[in-house]
Amino acid sequence: MVFPLDSIQDFSVVLTPEHEMFRKAVREFVEREVAPRAMEIEEKDEVPRDLLKKIAEQGFFGIGIPEKYGGQGGDHRMAAIMSEEFCRVLPGLSVYFGTNELFITPIMLFGSEEQRQKYIPPIAKGEKFGAFAVTEPCCGSDVAGIQTRAEKVGNKWVINGRKAFISSSDIADYFIVLARTYPPPDKKLRYLGLTFFIVERDTPGFKVEQCYHKMGLHGDHACELVFENVEVPDENRVGEEGMGFLYAMETFDRTRIGVAAQAVGMAQGAFEKAFQYVHQRQAFGVPIAYFQAIQFSLVEMMAKIFTARLLTYLAAKLADENRKEFTFVASLAKFYATEVAEEVISEAINLHGGVGVIRETGVERFLRDVKITQIYEGANNIQKLVAYRQLIRILREKGQIPEEVAKLVT
């Protein structure tokens, strides 16, 4: 009944009055400050700096960051709540939270105390922004195949290479960059030899090149990065040399919860628009919500949103409890919530009829936005593989599957 978890209590999603107070505060801010400007931001594909400043003043960039490093504290559930509420109105804004988290997480988990003290407080306060530079033109899901190199010269590292599709990189001040520092021992261990480095924006030889015109998540830009003999001191190396791949995977395990929450928020936003529309739009002398087919659609949409939300918050709760199982639940939540959100949003457009494909209605953009969540931070087919392998690893550690079987199936 409870497999692969241990107890029926493991399936509980614990949310407190503090979580609800926070949710209300975020929603009130988003409705007041973001909603009136959402269409302008969507059209211009640009978030005004004054809006980012207001978000910083609310302390939202510090959610999930310990007070010791200038943050507001909070847990994964609180961060998921925030992403969901922002994505209900303007999904592109939530990407800034995600890229900051991607930058911060490996430093918090594996970096030095000096790195934490230097780089995390400015991000927590919204004074600086971070970006996560892993993906390359050659390599997306195949992280171990990246070609950017870092060579040690004295007490410095010299980085050469290119990165692609790096979110928030046009405004980021700090970048955490994955580069190969030595060749892998063999094909099975090709993930070894990758190392993380912190690169500051004004470092000579580093530049942000073209930014892409994306189909969705407008307001946040993905760009190419170029490294030409970029020198960084050894103190900017994050963690042990050669362990960057494992650090990246640990990071993604946590940030995928945020992607699932993004998708839930988009589905919720589209559903609310559809629900309101079908009770206003009349056909044959009655609101179209009168028709059974419409009612069935609304109920099916609600069921999908509820299940995606519960799975997402379960992953967040398990992560807050530091349970090993959170890793495969986070992968389940990421691929499931993003797939379900696409279905809900597509149906919301159908319920709007012709006006559903008009930009001014504000519903079609959710479909363009959600497609990106199915791809970044691990494409969904990769997520299914990752979830399975994480599950087998956990069951092997619990002694519930023999070592020889685990090796065969993974």
Automatic annotation (TrEMBL):
UniProt domain Acyl-CoA oxidase/dehydrogenase middle: residue ranges: 131-230
Residue ranges annotated for the Acyl-CoA dehydrogenase/oxidase C-terminal domain, each copy included: 242-391
Q: List cofactor names only.
A: FAD
List the EC numbers from the record: 1.3.8.1
InterPro entries, per database record: Acyl-CoA_Oxase/DH_mid-dom, Acyl-CoA_Oxase/DH_mid-dom_sf, AcylCo_DH-like_C, AcylCo_DH/oxidase_C, AcylCoA_DH/ox_N, AcylCoA_DH/ox_N_sf, AcylCoA_DH/oxidase_NM_dom_sf
- Superkingdom, natural source: Archaea
Instruction: List the Gene Ontology MF annotations in alphabetical order.
Output: flavin adenine dinucleotide binding; short-chain fatty acyl-CoA dehydrogenase activity
Which parts of the sequence belong to the Acyl-CoA dehydrogenase/oxidase N-terminal domain?
A: 16-127
The EC category is oxidoreductase
Q: Name the family the entry cites.
A: Belongs to the acyl-CoA dehydrogenase family.
Identification of the protein by name = Butyryl-CoA dehydrogenase
